Amino acid sequence: MKLTIIGATGGVGTHLVRQALSADHHVTAIVRDPARLAVEPQVRLEVVTAKELDPSALGPAITGRDAVISTLGARDRRPTTVCADGARATIAAMRDADVRRLVVVSASGLVTDGDGVFTRSLVKPLLWRFLRESYRDMQKMEELVRASGLAWTIVRPPKLTTGERTGRIRSRADGNVRGSFSIARADVADYLLRTVADDSLVNGTISIAHG
After folding, report:
1. Could you give the angle at which helices 11-22 and 185-195 cross, rounded to 10 degrees?
2. Which of 84, 122, 145, 195 is the most exposed place for a label (fewest CB within 10 A)?
3. Neighbours of 144 (CB within 10 A)
4. Is residue 135 a contact partner of residue 82, using CB atoms and an 8 Å limit?
């Protein structure tokens, strides 16, 4: 497939670019600073610099591709609109380019569906206290994606960790994965790559965690 990856220099994004290339996909990596992309140059990798995420900047990097995967996320706890702004620009560019498949990364912390009593009553309120700005941004992103009319999938991982890909991933469509509170960024990338080709997950919101 020909994939456009937005947020390619982030933790999940870097793993995603590497795994997609290893699977013989053609990757267009959209970055603000090419020097931050920790991936060796190769024939099937195209790097596009976009200082601002707007439809005119994203359009050429999306046209003719099979799907777009966004791993955008806030880098700190300050007020941000990076996810919502990125989704808005991506959706507009995809409509113009007639590209329909979109997969985005959100967070399982946004909801308590499926969580146990301890997580629902104590852990999630604390997370919202410290991460409310990025969570609000992700909530808006999810609203935009669901209303886009595209063939979308929202993937909600819990706490992201370092480490190698394990392939042990649990998923749940009707709530968060119970009893598992983290997942390696490499495994998130693995799941995203599988999701983009899985028509059964279109127009679904899926929570994932370490299996």
Report:
1. 50
2. 122
3. 19
4. no
Helices in 81-151 by DSSP H: which ranges?
82-97, 117-118, 124-146
Domain boundaries, the chain: 2-210
Angstrom distance (rounded) from CA 26 to CA 76: 31
3-class secondary-structure state, position 208: strand
Strand locations in the chain (E): 2-6, 26-31, 45-49, 67-70, 101-105, 151-156, 159-161, 169-172, 182-184, 204-210
- One pLDDT digit (tens) per residue for the chain, 211 residues: 999 999 999 999 999 999 999 999 999 999 999 999 999 999 999 999 998 889 999 999 999 999 999 999 987 788 899 999 999 999 999 999 999 999 999 999 999 898 888 888 888 888 888 889 999 999 999 999 999 999 999 999 999 999 999 999 999 998 999 988 999 999 999 999 999 999 999 999 999 999 8
Q: How far apart are CA 189 and CA 68, in angstroms?
A: 13
Considering the four listed CATH numbers 3.90.180.10, 3.10.280.10, 3.40.50.720, 1.10.1780.10, the one that applies to the domain covering 2-210 is: 3.40.50.720
Q: Would you give the DSSP letter of residue 138?
A: H
